[in-house]
Amino acid sequence: MWEIERVVPWFEEEYSMTFIHWLAGNLDTDDVVQGAIHWKDAVWKWLTDSAMWSTFLFVVLKIVIIFIITRIFIRVINKIIDKSMEQKGDNGRFRLNTRRLTTVGELLKNVTNIVFNFILIMLVLSQMGINLGPLIAGAGVLGLAVGFGAQSLVKDVITGFFIIFEDQFAVGDVIQTGTFKGTVEMIGLRTTRLVSWKGEVYILPNGSITTVTNFSMSNALAVVDVPMKAERSLEEAVSLVKQAIQGIEESNAQILNMPDVLGVQSMTTSEYIVRVVAECMPNTGALVERDIQNNIKRALEDEEHRQAALETAITLEKEDESGRKGGEKGGA
């Protein structure tokens, strides 16, 4: 321990003196003084250059003005977007819920911020004297490369944006595009997910959605064709159908109006078809048709049972009359 305490002071003293001697031998005092004076003069000239400072302050002022104007533009456009989304939500022209309206509004505001901030950066760089030509050319080459490499992705995103913005269909709608039909479960900027009535999930790139049939945008029409035997009169058939569907719009909330019996739709030598139509809620046509068919089927069964019971009663009455007549003849 005592050796270390003796060595360290010796090391510091020896090498400190060596460094001082090196500085004294290699540096000229006059050069140091002249360098300090030159540096002081340069700094003072820079600090007292009125033209440079006026130019600098003017550039800073322009940058501040550009920044303020950009912020004002962004705020005004965001207010317009918010107001537009509120109006579309109030007048019901877009069948979008509050969450989807908010999503569309935020998407538009983000795009606005990106565009105006990009313009702001370009203007600031221009005021700072930076040549924008190489930057713009480089950005153009990069954008061209990305565009060629991701054409389908860009197409999907653009199509998805317009699907959401134009409200071509919404979550919960039943649509058909090409051979795919199902309920819309999710709409993204790149893909749309459908679920068929069997539970099959279809994930479709938005760029592949060209023609869409939306079954949920307007009221549906339930159409039921009822076959009747040619022996049954038209008046009896129409009366039977009307009795079967009477009051069905009260028991089924999906039916908007009393179903109409249009009459004979087609006929052959053995039967004719009576058509029934009913206006119902969107995408409920199949359910309403099934309900109408059930009512008519029960009415036809009741009619058949009534006819069978009537025929049985007539047969028994005839047999009773025949038996009484036979007994009277035997007694005579």
From TrEMBL:
It comes from Paenibacillus polymyxa (Bacillus polymyxa). PANTHER family: MODERATE CONDUCTANCE MECHANOSENSITIVE CHANNEL YBIO. May play a role in resistance to osmotic downshock. InterPro entries: LSM_dom_sf, MS_channel_1st, MscS_beta-dom_sf, MscS_channel_2nd, MscS_channel_TM-2, YbiO_bact. Residues 153-216 form the Mechanosensitive ion channel MscS domain. SUPFAM superfamilies: Mechanosensitive channel protein MscS (YggB), transmembrane region, Sm-like ribonucleoproteins. Belongs to the MscS (TC 1.A.23) family. It is a multi-pass membrane protein. Residues 110-151 form the Mechanosensitive ion channel transmembrane helices 2/3 domain. Residues 321-332 have a biased composition (Basic and acidic residues). This is Putative mscS family protein. Residues 313-332 are annotated as: Disordered. The chain crosses the membrane at residues 51-74, 107-126, 132-154. One of its GO terms (cellular component) is plasma membrane. The keyword Cell membrane applies. The gene is mcsBUsg.
